[in-house]
């Protein structure tokens, strides 16, 4: 019997499997697809996600392969948020196809010893695991549904998924452009609609947008290249020489959140726990951070290092983040699709505020990037630099708590037995407010502060 069965080998399930193995838990991942989906729904890795990768020593490959974009948008407004002001070693987003993210995550999960069974589908839950579609029982103490918005695990567990149905639709095309815009990027909004173009590896561009015709409850028919070309022409006056589509799709603004993230030994993460319009490209990132929060906790419980009450903190910490995600993306959706004259005026005013009010721009950037997440007692710890040249994210790579003794012999209470204990001196250049006066701090495996002493 495994400690955990993870259902779904998307980015969330694969990263969770790796975290569970890092924490010493045995894990099997069940996935119906024989290979990662070649159509990459997600394209963006935000700064906090890259920090997560760095805190496990695997960020280099992602940064090397992705296209770094030093700013971000709120609802496609013309004036973009400057990420260079963010307190992070990674002040940019990375454009990297989801298929490549999945491949890299799967490599890590397998290297750490996770078992990944592809071509198998979960049909039902079992009191000792899950039942596959051929009747095989895969036994495990815990089951985590990372199987998307239509989650079999969530439905089988009887966990509700309340929310709103789609009332508007976006469209997406991964195409070759013979005459791409200058720099490869474009962001255009007008009463005719709005779109963004982003270069992808392999000489392909992603065009994603919406228009007044998108405001309808029923799902439109399948998107064709001719329709995509016509819509892009209406908005920009050019089709940029588009041809050879690799993927054409539509997506709606349905917004739902699971009524519980945990029911006994069943847990949910990622899209199985929350679905929303992909405004700002945050979905994959929030899901990976769900997994980061859950992984160390579930591993500690499964291996007997903590009681099951620790799992309750997963829901109390992450469910509010999911609710905020829905509110944030719904606000962006409303603003994105404000095509009337009044709506365009509102967009212009808000865009100007982002350009002229640095505090607003920074607040939105921190919220979009995931750097502002605070669990009450557990705000994110920055990548502190120490006098010996080391830094905090490096110390987190074992997936254990890190006890920082910054005062030479000071210790704190409530320190796990397997914590990495470090006596260090902050670098002379380390001037972050609130950190220079600390004597001791315990950093959780997910990079959030557990407690501190001044």
Keywords:
454 residues, alpha+beta, FAD/NAD(P)-binding domain, Alpha-Beta Plaits, Glutaredoxin, 3 domains, 8-stranded mixed beta sheet
The share of residues in helices is 25-40%
Major sheet characteristics: 8 strands, mixed
Which CATH class of the largest domain? Alpha Beta
Helix count equals: 11
Domains counted in the coordinates: how many?
A: 3
> What gross morphology would you assign?
globular
Stretches with pLDDT under 50, minimum 5 residues: none
Structure explained in plain terms:
By secondary structure, this protein is α+β, with helices and mostly antiparallel strands. It has three domains: 2-164 and 256-369, FAD/NAD(P)-binding domain, CATH 3.50.50.60; 169-252, Alpha-Beta Plaits; 392-453, Glutaredoxin (3-Layer(aba) Sandwich), CATH 3.40.30. 30% of the residues lie in helices and 25% in strands. It is built from eleven helices and 25 strands. The chain has helices spanning 11-22, 47-54, 59-65, 98-111, 152-156, 225-236, 283-302, 309-336, 341-356, 358-369, 392-395, and strands spanning 2-7, 27-31, 44-45, 67-69, 71-72, 81-82, 93-95, 115-118, 122-126, 129-132, 137-145, 163-164, 169-177, 186-190, 193-200, 204-210, 242-252, 255-257, 262-263, 266-268, 274-275, 402-405, 420-423, 440-443, 449-453. Strands 1, 2, 8, 9, 10, 11, 19 and 20 form an eight-stranded mixed beta sheet that branches. The protein has a five-stranded antiparallel beta sheet with strand order 14-15-16-13-17, covered by helices on one side. A hairpin with an 8-residue loop joins strand 5 and strand 6 (81-82). Helix 1 (11-22) runs parallel beside helix 4 (98-111). It is globular and about 65 Å long. The chain starts with a strand and ends with a strand. The model has no long low-confidence stretch (mean pLDDT 93).
């Amino acid at each position: 019997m495994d400690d955990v069965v993870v259902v779904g080998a998307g980015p969330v399930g694969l990263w969770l499997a790796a975290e569970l193995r890092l924490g010493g838990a045995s894990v099997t991942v069940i996935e119906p697809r024989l290979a990662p989906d070649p159509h990459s729904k997600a394209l963006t890795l935000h700064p906090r996600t890259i920090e997560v990768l760095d805190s496990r020593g695997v960020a280099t490959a992602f940064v090397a392969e992705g296209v770094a974009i030093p700013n971000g948008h709120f609802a496609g407004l013309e004036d973009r948020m400057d990420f260079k002001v963010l307190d992070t070693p990674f002040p940019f987003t990375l454009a990297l196809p989801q298929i490549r993210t999945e491949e890299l995550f799967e490599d890590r999960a397998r290297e750490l010893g996770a078992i990944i069974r592809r071509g198998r589908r979960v049909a039902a839950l079992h009191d000792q695991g899950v039942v596959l579609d051929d009747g095989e029982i895969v036994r495990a103490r815990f089951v985590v549904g990372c199987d998307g918005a239509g989650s079999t695990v969530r439905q089988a567990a009887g966990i509700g998924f309340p929310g709103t149905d789609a009332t508007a639709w976006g469209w997406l095309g991964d195409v070759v452009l013979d005459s791409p815009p200058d720099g490869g990027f474009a962001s255009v909004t007008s009463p005719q609609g709005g779109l963004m173009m982003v270069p992808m590896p392999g000489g392909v561009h992603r065009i994603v947008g919406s228009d007044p015709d998108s405001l309808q409850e029923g799902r439109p028919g399948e998107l064709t290249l001719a329709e995509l070309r016509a819509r892009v022409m209406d908005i920009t006056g050019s089709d940029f020489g588009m041809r050879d589509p690799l993927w054409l799709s539509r997506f709606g603004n349905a917004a739902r959140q699971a009524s519980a993230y945990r029911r006994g030994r069943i847990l949910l993460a990622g899209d199985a726990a929350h679905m929303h319009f992909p405004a700002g490209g945050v979905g994959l990132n929030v899901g990976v951070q769900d997994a980061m929060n859950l992984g160390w906790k579930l591993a500690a419980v499964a291996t007997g290092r903590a009681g099951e009450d620790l799992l309750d903190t997963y829901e109390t910490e992450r469910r509010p983040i999911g609710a905020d995600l829905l509110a944030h993306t719904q606000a962006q959706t409303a603003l994105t699709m404000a095509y009337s004259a009044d709506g365009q005026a509102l967009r212009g005013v808000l865009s100007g505020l982002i350009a002229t009010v640095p505090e607003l721009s920074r607040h939105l950037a921190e919220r979009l990037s995931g750097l502002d997440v605070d669990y009450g007692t557990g705000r994110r710890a920055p990548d502190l630099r120490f006098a010996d040249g080391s830094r905090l994210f490096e110390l987190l790579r074992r997936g254990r708590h890190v006890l920082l003794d910054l005062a030479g012999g000071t210790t704190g209470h409530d320190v796990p037995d397997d914590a990495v204990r470090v006596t260090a001196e902050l670098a002379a250049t380390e001037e972050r407010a609130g950190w220079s006066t600390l004597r001791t701090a315990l950093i959780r495996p997910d990079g959030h502060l557990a407690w501190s002493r001044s």
